[in-house]
Each structure stands twice: as structure tokens, then as C-alpha cells.
Design brief:
9-stranded mixed β-sheet; 48 strands; disordered N terminus; 689 residues; 7-stranded antiparallel β-sheet; 4 helices
């Protein structure tokens, strides 16, 4: 049975639908003002050659692999590189399927064959046989050298194969081999698209080779391995669990996201002492889910240090003076003397999160301003907050340190209208507690530290994962074209520093600037754009910026969004200027931004920098509107799943009276709810962005 509730094209400001006990309900709230479309650019044809031009570009070009050598593009790029329309290049996205069979192994190249248990040797030999499709006396190349994997080399030799070093003077496609072992070291992309079977155990190469998200390394003594897919020939007929290897090793681990259709043959375990290695770890200690010891203190500036000085010299001691591994939660109130948009800078070593309760309904993910959920040395991350009225607002800073020195600091910019991402020591920033501008500390800051305690936990980790060959339906990680765009075309770029003209003379980025849009006197002006990006290889230096010049090209620019990788280990694009929101994928999603008040002749510019062929960004269907958005909501039950289609931003609540919160990760329409997640009643509404 299919049940559908549709919201017609009327002036409803928002709509509410509910799923409860298999029935769909709908309420009609108050009406609002219809939205006015002032401007639209769809990129369905080449607007730069129109008369007059609809936009201008810097650094526009496109090159296919066959053109790389003549154009001076590095031949290590495995797909087209471009700053162009999608219809000017062969493919936008990551081409698939797999070039040949692939195996991903959690391993340490230092493991010797005598440290490997007999069942593990049997498992590895069966994996080699599967990759080789039973070929005997095969030639196996280990990259970069045999010395990078002596234990595997010995096992291959014992099985009757010949093992040699990689000849890096040859292109990967010129290597003569029946099987390639990709160990750590050398070019991370080498052999990524070679149509020969590959076994890889190089954590930093997994994303470049399109096998998984980038892996990590961890040093521990492995627990037992457990066969997951006993029916697969690579499992060698093994079942149950068995010892893997002896001794402590530094494991090259598989990434936590795998391609569709991947086959996990075996897992193994790691024992993990209690730690504070993520914001989730701290949240679990705060809630009491994880054990901890606590200490509290009251301070007057938000600057805490444990042997890491950061940017400010105050350096309050972490309550209880923990060293190495700790979490921290600092709470207080902000005094905002005038409504407006303000920039905040959060300095941290390792990770931290800033929340500000601007809607005054308690802290939720909707209050996230800055989120840096990753380990790393001291650095600053930035975010803007718009306060609708003057007054006091609760704030909360949560931080963690997973080892060594650590610190956390909160700064406020003195610049008006937000958008400040200058260095904390550049002169426009002040430490919270010592501010002289319109945002200041009200009262004191209460801080509580959390030091992990309790027994070790056990983590199950993939040990051996297989990807079928192209004739078996094998998929590469992140593979597929960009989809969900409006019409015929969109604008996109990849490897933006790898082809002429040199972007060092273009401000360090390539750009598209649209013609001015007259918005004088318009209220509630918003920019909405469809955005997409690959999600497997970005660095924090890569970006897609959305810039506006509110009063013509000669006015001061305002950065509305900064999409980049949230950390060195998390490679997807999010809007780091707005609390790491709006994660991008291969399907275009609409994202909306407020245009600065008082804008007259609005000029919109997209700026991008990426450094590799699979680091691809795209934008489409640019719209400028005025007035209130008219959200729409449609809820469909079709089979076991529920499909929520909407415009605007989707919110949910456990009951119709609230409290309402944006659905996590700002999903694109449709939002699909599988049967397993339908145990409790859920209410939905769509709000204006």
C-alpha cells in the first residue's frame, strides 16, 4: 500500500508531517510570503561566450589523459583534469568499475613469515590464488621493493611464484606482472587503474587507489582473526577464529568506508585502553556512558593549556592537571550587545567543538558553530554566528587530547559582518574573556575535565577485504558520475593546480564570476546553489569558496561558505565556515546562504582549488531569491521504507510540539527511512534555509 501526503504550491511558510504506527499525518501551520526569484544561472550552455557574457572565468581549460604529455600535465593523473562545463570533458566523477580484482589487507610490512600462524598463511595463499585466478608460477611485483613486504614475499616464493621489485622508471601500465603488491611508500596512485590484480596494504594509498577511504596506522598486538565469509574461495575453507600473527606490529589499516559490493573475508581485533580520541569519547564520558575521573575549576578566559601554548599566553591549567589523554567541557554565557553576524575562532590541540545556543532551547547538533573532530597539532578553525537580537547566550566548548601536549582557546573577531578567517594573531581577534567588541564574556567560565578510566574495549577491524573484477560487477570506492544536476550542464573542476595556466598568477585558485544581480531594496535575499564533490581524497588545503561582492565588484568581498576537508584524515568536503555542515557527495544538493543586508548590485563568485584528478568539485543552478521560502513536504510509504521529499531544510521531532531539530547531516531530498528505524513515532517539518 502506498500512502502519500502532498503539500500544494501555496503560501505555507512550513509544513509538518508525521509518521506514527504506519500512518501519515499532516498539519497546516500559518502562511507566509511567497518567494521571488530574482536570478538564475543553470550552466546548460556556455554563458561565457554569450553576448553579453553571463559569467567570466579564470583558469578555464580541460585536458583528457591522451593530451596530458603534450600539455605538460603530470601523467600520474588517472582521469581528465579541467575547470570547465561537464559537457566539455569525458567524465565528471570517478570512473569505474574496478580495473581488475583487488584485495585490501590490514598488514605490517615488517611481519616475517615465521610470525604468521598456519591458518593465516593458508588464508593469504588462498587470497593470492583468487587474485591470480589459480595461475601458477606467476610473476609478482612488490612496490616499491620486496624489502617493503618480506613476509609476503616469502609466502609467495614458497607458493612457487617469482617476486621482484617494482621498476619505478616504467609507467605503471608498462609493468609486466601477473600480480602487484602495493606496500607503503612511493606514489600513492601507482597501479590505481592498472588492469592487473593488486593486493594493497598501504593505508595512505587506499583512497588514491579507489579501494576505501584513507586508512590509518595503529600499533598493537592483534587479537584473533575471524572468518566472516567462509563460502568465498579466498577463505580457504577456514571457519571460526584463529591466531593471526605473533608480536606487536604497526598495522596499515583499511579505511572505514568501502565500495558497494566489497567482500569482507576476515576481521581481527584490537584491544583499546580507555581514551579521549574524539568528541564522541568526551560526550560519552559526560553522559556517564564511559567511565572517567573528573575535576572542575572556574576561570575568566577561555584559554586552557597542557604544555601547548597555542596563540594566547593566558594558559589556564586543565582542571586536575591531567597530562596526555583528557577531555574538557567549558561552559559560560556570551553577552551580545548588538544583533548581527560575528566570527569565532577555535584553537585546539587535538580536537574541539563550539556550540552556541542562539535559539535558547538547549544544546543540540543544530547549535554547532565549529567542529574539528580530529587529532593534530595546534591550529584554528572558524565559524560565523548570526544573533537575531542582543542579549546573553549560552555557549559550550568541548575538547579532547589523545596524547602528548594539548590546548583549547576561543577567540572573537572585532570585524563586522562575520567572514573573518584571518590568522588569530593577525590583529582582528581577541581572546574570550578579554574582548572589547560587541561580543564579550558574561560572568565566568565553568570547566570540567574528564580523564578516561575503566577496562579496555575491543574493536573489530577488517583484516581482508576483496573487490571483484570488472566482469564480476566490482565497484571502486567513490566511483560513479555526478548526478542530480538541473538540466544538461554544470560547472566543475579537478586537479586544478595540475594544468596551465599556472594558478599562482590567478590568486591561487580558479574562478567563475557571475554577472551582477540587482537586489536593491529586497528583503531576505538568499543565494541557493546546487553543490557536489567527490569524497575520497581532499586535503585541508583544497577548497570551494562562495564569495559575494554585495555592492558591485569594487565593494569588499564577503565569503559565504568555505568547503574543505574537515581534517587530514577526513577527506570529504563540508562547509567548515558553518560548523562542518552540508557534507557533499556525488549527488547535487541545494545549499542556501543569507546575502548580506543592504546589498545592491550583488556579484557572486566561485573559487576553487584541488590538487588531484579525483578531487572534483561542482556547482549548478545558482538562484538568488527574495522574500520567504515556501517549503514543501511529501511523505510516501512504498513497501517497507518511508520516503520524505521536501524543499528547504528538513527537521524532525519525537512529538508534534517539538523540540524540533535539523535532521543530522542536512540530508538532500528524498530522505529515506528504512523499516529498522521506524520503531518510534517521528514528526517532520520543512523550514526555510
Amino acid at each position: 500500500m502506498k500512502l502519500r501526503v502532498n503539500v500544494p504550491q501555496r503560501n505555507w511558510k512550513r509544513v509538518v508531517g508525521a509518521l506514527a504506527s504506519g500512518f501519515l499525518l499532516l498539519a497546516w501551520p500559518f502562511s507566509g510570503i511567497a518567494q521571488e526569484l530574482l536570478y538564475q544561472e543553470t550552466f546548460n550552455d556556455d554563458g561565457e561566450v554569450a553576448n553579453p557574457p553571463r559569467y567570466t572565468t579564470t583558469g578555464r581549460a580541460h585536458f583528457e589523459p591522451a593530451e596530458f604529455e603534450a600539455a605538460g600535465v603530470p601523467t600520474t593523473q588517472l582521469g581528465p583534469v579541467y575547470w570547465a562545463h561537464n559537457f566539455e570533458v569525458s567524465f565528471v566523477g570517478v570512473p569505474g568499475p574496478t580495473p581488475a580484482r583487488r584485495a585490501i589487507l590490514a598488514w605490517d610490512g615488517a611481519i616475517t613469515s615465521d610470525q604468521v600462524s598456519d591458518p593465516a598463511k593458508k588464508l593469504l595463499k588462498a587470497t593470492f590464488d583468487w587474485l591470480l585466478k589459480g595461475k601458477t608460477g606467476a610473476k609478482v611485483v612488490i612496490s616499491p621493493t620486496v624489502d617493503a613486504a618480506p613476509g609476503l614475499a616469502d609466502l609467495l616464493t614458497a607458493a612457487g611464484h617469482t617476486v621482484t621489485d617494482d621498476d619505478t622508471a616504467l609507467a605503471d601500465t608498462a609493468i609486466v606482472a601477473d600480480l602487484i603488491i602495493k606496500a607503503p611508500g612511493g606514489d600513492d596512485s601507482r597501479f590505481g587503474k592498472v588492469p592487473k590484480p593488486v593486493l594493497a596494504f598501504s593505508a595512505t594509498s587506499h583512497d588514491d587507489m579507489l579501494l576505501s577511504t584513507i586508512g590509518t596506522t595503529a600499533t598493537f598486538t592483534a587479537g584473533q582473526a575471524t572468518i566472516v565469509t567462509a563460502s568465498h574461495p579466498a577463505a580457504a575453507g577456514l571457519t571460526g577464529s584463529f591466531d593471526l600473527v605473533t608480536g606487536e606490529h604497526t598495522w596499515q589499516l583499511i579505511g572505514d568506508q568501502l565500495p558497494e559490493g566489497s567482500i569482507t573475508v576476515a576481521n581481527f581485533t584490537e584491544k583499546i585502553p580507555p581514551t579521549a580520541a574524539s568528541l564522541a569519547d568526551v560526550d560519552a564520558m559526560v553522559s556517564g556512558k564511559n567511565q572517567s575521573t573528573q575535576a572542575s575549576a572556574t576561570v575568566t578566559t577561555l584559554d586552557f593549556s597542557a604544555n601547548s601554548t597555542g596563540n594566547w599566553p593566558n594558559d589556564n591549567e586543565i582542571p586536575g592537571a591531567p597530562t596526555g589523554i583528557w577531555g574538557l567541557v567549558a561552559k559560560g554565557k556570551l553577552n551580545v550587545s548588538a544583533a548581527g553576524k560575528y566570527s569565532f575562532g577555535l584553537g585546539m590541540d587535538d580536537g574541539a567543538r563550539l556550540r552556541i545556543d542562539k535559539d535558547k532551547n538547549g544544546f543540540t547538533d543544530a547549535d554547532n558553530v565549529i567542529v574539528e573532530d580530529a587529532a593534530g597539532g595546534h591550529r584554528a578553525r572558524y565559524g560565523d554566528v548570526t544573533f537575531a537580537t542582543a542579549g546573553t547566550y549560552d555557549f559550550e566548548v568541548t575538547a579532547f587530547n589523545s596524547g602528548g601536549a594539548g590546548d583549547v582557546e576561543l577567540s572573537v573577531s572585532t570585524k563586522a559582518n562575520g567572514g573573518d578567517t584571518s590568522a588569530i594573531d593577525s590583529g582582528s581577534w581577541e581572546l574570550l574573556g578579554e574582548t572589547t567588541g560587541k561580543v564579550s564574556l558574561s560572568g565566568t567560565i565553568s570547566a570540567t575535565s574528564y580523564v578516561p578510566a575503566g577496562p579496555d574495549t575491543e574493536r573489530v577491524i577488517p583484516f581482508l577485504v576483496l573487490l571483484n573484477g570488472p566482469d564480476e560487477g566490482g565497484s571502486v570506492f567513490g566511483g560513479g558520475p555526478f548526478v542530480g544536476f538541473e538540466g544538461r550542464g554544470f560547472f566543475a573542476g579537478s586537479a586544478l593546480n595540475k594544468f596551465p595556466p599556472d594558478i599562482s598568477g590567478l590568486g591561487g585558485f580558479r574562478s567563475v564570476q557571475l554577472r551582477p544581480v540587482r537586489v536593491t531594496g529586497k528583503q531576505n535575499v538568499k543565494l541557493t546553489v546546487g553543490l557536489a564533490a567527490t569524497f575520497l581524497d581532499f586535503e585541508t588545503s583544497d577548497f570551494l569558496d562562495i564569495i559575494v561582492f554585495p555592492n558591485g565588484v569594487n565593494s569588499s568581498e564577503v565569503r559565504l561558505a568555505h568547503f574543505s576537508a574537515p581534517s587530514d584524515s577526513k577527506k570529504y568536503f563540508v562547509d567548515t565556515l558553518h560548523g562542518n555542515s552540508n557534507q557533499l557527495g556525488l549527488r547535487f544538493k541545494d545549499v542556501s546562504f543569507d546575502v548580506p543586508a543592504g546589498a545592491t548590485d550583488l556579484v557572486i563568485e566561485f573559487r576553487a582549488f584541488t590538487s588531484w584528478w579525483n578531487e572534483t568539485v561542482a556547482f549548478d543552478n545558482v538562484r538568488v531569491t527574495a522574500g520567504a521560502l515556501t517549503p514543501q513536504l511529501s511523505i510516501t510509504r512504498d513497501g517497507g521504507s518511508v520516503r520524505v521529499e521536501f524543499t528547504g531544510v528538513l527537521q524532525s521531532a519525537a512529538q508534534v510540539t517539538g523540540g524540533w531539530a535539523d535532521v543530522a547531516n542536512n540530508p538532500s531530498s528524498p530522505f529515506v527511512i528504512p523499516p529498522a528505524q521506524q520503531a518510534k513515532a517521528q514528526f517532520f517539518r520543512a523550514r526555510a534555509p
